From TrEMBL:
It comes from the Bacteria. Gene3D superfamilies: Homeodomain-like. GO terms for molecular function: DNA-binding transcription factor activity; sequence-specific DNA binding. This is AraC family transcriptional regulator, transcriptional activator of pobA. Residues 170-268 form the HTH araC/xylS-type domain. InterPro entries: Homeodomain-like_sf (IPR009057), HTH-like (IPR037923), HTH_AraC (IPR018060). Transmembrane segments: none annotated. The keyword Transcription regulation applies. Keywords: DNA-binding, Transcription, Transcription regulation. It comes from Thalassovita litoralis.
Length: 289
């Protein structure tokens, strides 16, 4: 090996289509959840709805989302949506923005810039050359510069002042990502935030279109499906890990919200992935995709 050459290894930074992220179910983006890595989504086709850290917004072509690790979000593009997803390790050294962003890019030149940056990143990943990860991080740094320039052009240098209700919903969403596994009720979350359950639910409905209890339910449901469908973890342990008082209550919860029991969900996933196993395709999705 040449001096200073880096052994070839898979990059921590991954780029794929949104369709591939959804290949094992639309719920992987459409249900409220957070991730342990940063995520960039570049929507190039379709329209739908998103919730980003407690704010509901419409989504269309040429919308770019930056979603830092630990940000509660969902994105439903329907069946016609298309775009690119970039998984980025949460690393302050990459100088990415520390808050979620939605950028609606109308200028063709700016759209082409981001598409070009993503193409360069994809080619680097495909080439699999020495120092690939270092080069991929450099490309992500350039994407970060692009995002910050666009945010400055669209919104100016000053952070917008948020209404009190939106600040409350954002604080609740941040708390949910940290505490949803504890089994706390919505009323207990409201008490932690110093407000009544009614006030919290009213604010959540105003800014997200769903109640505070719905937000908590959706986050728990996502984790349940993720563990049921992508791991071999015993169902009893899953119910305990997500804060359910009993396996029976957990089973009823999953059945109520998916129409299938935890056992049936796991069995269906095994059947659907069996053909790929026989052809040698990669089966196991990224743990947080």
């Amino acid at each position: 090996m040449p001096p200073n050459a880096e052994p070839r290894k898979p990059s921590e930074i991954r780029i794929t289509s949104i369709a591939q992220v959804l290949r094992n179910g639309a719920w992987r983006l459409a249900e409220l959840h957070d991730r342990d890595h940063d995520l960039l989504l570049w929507v190039t086709k379709g329209q739908g709805l998103a919730i980003l850290q407690g704010v509901r917004c419409g989504v269309g072509a040429h919308n770019a989302f930056y979603i830092p690790a630990g940000t509660l979000f969902s994105l439903d593009l329907g069946r016609t949506g298309f775009g690119i997803a970039v998984r980025i390790p949460h690393d302050p050294a990459l100088t990415l923005h520390d808050a979620p962003m939605l950028l609606r890019i109308r200028e063709v030149h700016a759209q082409s810039e981001l598409t070009g940056l993503l193409d360069h990143l994809q080619r680097e990943r495909d080439h699999n050359a020495p120092f690939m990860d270092e080069a991929a991080r450099a490309h992500v740094a350039l994407i970060s510069v692009w995002m910050r320039r666009q945010a400055l052009a669209l919104h100016g240098p000053d952070e917008p002042k948020l209404p009190a209700g939106q600040r409350l919903v954002e604080a609740f969403c941040a708390l949910v990502t940290q505490e949803f596994r504890t089994g706390k009720t919505m009323a207990e979350f409201a008490a932690m935030l110093g407000v009544t359950p009614t006030h919290l639910s009213r604010a959540c409905r105003e800014h997200t279109g769903i109640t505070a209890a719905d937000i908590l339910t959706k986050r728990s449901l996502y984790e349940a499906r993720l563990l049921i469908e992508t791991t071999d973890m015993p169902l009893k342990e899953i119910s305990e890990a997500i804060g359910f008082g009993s396996p029976a209550y957990f089973s009823r919860f999953v059945l109520q919200h998916t129409g299938q029991s935890p056992t049936d969900l796991r069995r269906r996933t095994s059947v659907e992935t069996a053909p790929a196993q026989r052809t040698g395709a990669i089966l196991v999705p990224n743990r947080r995709y």
